[in-house]
Amino acid sequence: xxxxxxxxxxxxxxxxALGQWLVGGQPQVFAAMVEALFAMAKLSVEVMLxxxxxxxxxxxxxxxxxxxxxxxxxxxxxxxxxxRLMPEVPRGHPALGLITLNFAANALGxxxxxxxxxxKAMRELQTLNPHPESASNAQILFLVxxxxxxxxxxxxxxxYRMQQGAPDPALVFLPILxxxxxxxxxxxxxxxxxxxxPLWSPVVLAxxxxxxxxxxxxxxxxxxxxxxxxxxxxxxxxxLLLFGLLLLFLLLGAWRRVPVYEAFIxxxxxxxxxxxxxxxxxxxxxxxxxxxxxxGALDYLLAAIRVAVQxxxxxxxxxxxxxxxxxxxxxxxxxxALLIETMQTHGVDSFAALLAATVQGSTETTFYVLxxxxxxxxxxxxxxxxxxxxxxxxxxxxxxxxxxxxxxx
Length: 409
Hints:
- There is one protein chain.
- The chain is mainly α.
- 77% of the residues lie in helices and 0% in strands.
- The chain has helices at 2-22, 29-67, 70-85, 94-107, 111-126, 137-147, 155-163, 173-195, 202-223, 227-255, 260-276, 279-294, 297-312, 322-327, 332-346, 351-362, 366-375, 385-408.
- Helix 2 crosses helix 5 (111-126) and helix 6 (137-147) runs parallel beside helix 18.
- The longest helix has 39 residues, at 29-67.
- 47% of the residues are buried.
């Protein structure tokens, strides 16, 4: 699947560029594509420099948590649930605790913490994979749930809106929460359908229903807070929980008489090795995305969508936010740039800007996640991971459009 997608990006870019040259009279498009190719190769190296430091830091602290027994304790507590969702993962396996930590970090919007933990979990799952070049069922479920972008506190979106002068930066909080919940639900259901997972098992419901009730209660509580207090609380909780997690690792390690410094160095050394193996995969994916963007293929698609929407007589306001939605599966930085551009062009509280912010906060860079998570363990055949992840992405975008018409109509 990844082979066909990667080739498809270049072929689509080539067709779009030919159209710009032969029909639009713009031969400079080929120069732009070549420039984008080398620019993305440079960007891949810059991203790797950031990943080296982040992975080294977090995998160092994670090794302390492992030696202190925290990961094993989490695995034991969630063993009944994971036995039904990931039956090929043995009870008490370290991957289960790491998966839990990864989901918690994602829910709190702690991307820098979630990625290295997730990579460590993927490597642990790879040790159980009987076919190392093909993604296992457990790896697919884990990746799709990561790609569904379940975030309770979208602090970064609030920051973007505040930077652009929004009087109420947290205005999109509930729309984002509803849209990202929809994408995660669709991702879980699609994988469960393909893999025939027993979601209606009493054990699974015993775990998931309390989480759903707690989430609903938390949403109701946050909905009563004024925007300024909500933004401050989001930032405070995110940073407090981030530092608190590190402190918990250190204190628990010291209590269990773990040599914390030595454990950190041991884990950090592994983080360096993990990051080093990611560069070829990042170069391949980011260069393909850069060429696709520079060819004008996305512009053609947007124009076609607008014509189709007008032909049906529908409201076309959502089309102005689609660039963020179309680019987000490929590049988070490009989607952020398009979000800010939409805010500046249409106004920070315009319908297009509010929808773009909701899409940005409720979807994930699907192909980046595929390249990084599967690339870190050398997986070349993604099986149904791409289809399920893109289905979750589409559900997030459609839910964001529906929720924004409901809230901001």
